[in-house]
Design goal:
By secondary structure, the chain is mainly α. It contains 2 helices and no strands.
Length: 54
């Protein structure tokens, strides 16, 4: 993929991000992790919408 970079810092940051994404793709997430993440997202949404009671 050809990209135009603003400066050297931008180039390094973009390339580092791409490498991280490729690394994450190689590590499949477990069903348990998916469930925990969804529970956390649901809780955060409830807090934002004022539906969660403390």
């Amino acid at each position: 993929m050809n990209s135009t970079y603003i400066n050297e810092f931008h180039k390094e940051w973009i390339e580092s991000t791409r490498q991280s994404i490729e690394s994450w793709k190689k590590q499949p997430i477990s069903v348990e992790d998916v469930r925990r993440q969804q529970e956390m997202l649901d809780q955060q949404r409830a807090i934002r919408e004022g539906k969660l009671k403390s």
